[in-house]
């Protein structure tokens, strides 16, 4: 594998994209020739944003970085099929804590059995992001906490709009 041409996928539901996600994506862009941020549908999770909103928001945050080797695409279906269709040789995942390990190991084994030619690499977060998850960000935000250290201002604005929309629907 010629490293100058390695394409990596950084997948996630990004509901919303956090500074922890951005950190992993930026670090991957320093190593791989091209990084595709794959916004995936995840029917197992209750989403704050719908799929199109998550894609648009992730794209806005990534575009604001102005890193030409990073693109954002929608993932519909199996991640390994998406990776193959984009010529990706690597899937990059973040691994925050021991609690993430079991799930990630199961997914890695399944992905490896479906596409043994695709490598799976885990990045450990910087300590300041080790506790950070989209779920925690949403919970803090909905309960009136300050999330400005954890997400882009772009995300905060969209979350405010989304929350206002939800409250308006409830009062009608």
From TrEMBL:
Record has Ubl conjugation as a keyword: no
Annotated site residues (Transition state stabilizer) in this chain: 21
Matches recorded under Gene3D superfamilies: HUPs
Location of the protein in the cell: Cytoplasm
Catalytic activity: (R)-4'-phosphopantetheine + ATP + H(+) = 3'-dephospho-CoA + diphosphate
Domain Cytidyltransferase-like: 9-138
EC annotation from Swiss-Prot or TrEMBL: 2.7.7.3
Main location: cytoplasm
GO biological process terms, semicolon-separated: coenzyme A biosynthetic process
UniProt: ATP binding residues: 13-14, 21, 94-96, 104, 129-135
Pathway: Cofactor biosynthesis; coenzyme A biosynthesis; CoA from (R)-pantothenate: step 4/5
Top EC category: transferase
GO cellular component, one term: cytoplasm
Keyword annotations of the record: ATP-binding, Coenzyme A biosynthesis, Cytoplasm, Magnesium, Nucleotide-binding, Nucleotidyltransferase, Transferase
Binding site for substrate: 13, 45, 79, 93
GO MF term list: ATP binding; pantetheine-phosphate adenylyltransferase activity
Cofactor(s) the protein requires to work: Mg(2+)
Its biological purpose: Reversibly transfers an adenylyl group from ATP to 4'-phosphopantetheine, yielding dephospho-CoA (dPCoA) and pyrophosphate.
Family assignment from sequence similarity: Belongs to the bacterial CoaD family.
Subunit structure: Homohexamer.
Protein name, UniProt field: Phosphopantetheine adenylyltransferase
Species, as recorded: Desulfurella amilsii
Gene, per the UniProt record: coaD
């Amino acid at each position: 594998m010629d490293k100058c041409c390695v394409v990596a996928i950084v997948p996630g539901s990004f509901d919303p994209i956090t500074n922890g996600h951005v950190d992993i994506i930026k670090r991957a862009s320093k190593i791989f020739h091209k990084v595709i941020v794959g916004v995936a549908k995840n029917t197992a999770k209750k989403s704050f944003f719908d799929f199109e909103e998550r894609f648009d928001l992730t794209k806005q945050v990534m575009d604001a970085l102005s890193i030409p080797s990073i693109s954002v695409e929608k993932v519909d279906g199996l991640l390994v099929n998406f990776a193959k269709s984009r010529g990706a040789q690597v899937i990059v995942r973040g691994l925050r804590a021991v609690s993430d390990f079991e799930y990630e190991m199961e997914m890695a084994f399944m992905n490896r059995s479906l596409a043994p030619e695709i490598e799976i690499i885990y990045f450990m977060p910087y300590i300041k992001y080790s506790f950070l998850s989209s779920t925690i960000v949403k919970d803090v935000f909905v309960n009136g906490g300050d999330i400005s250290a954890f997400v882009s201002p772009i995300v905060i604005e969209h979350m405010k709009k989304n929350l206002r929309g939800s409250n308006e629907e409830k009062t009608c």
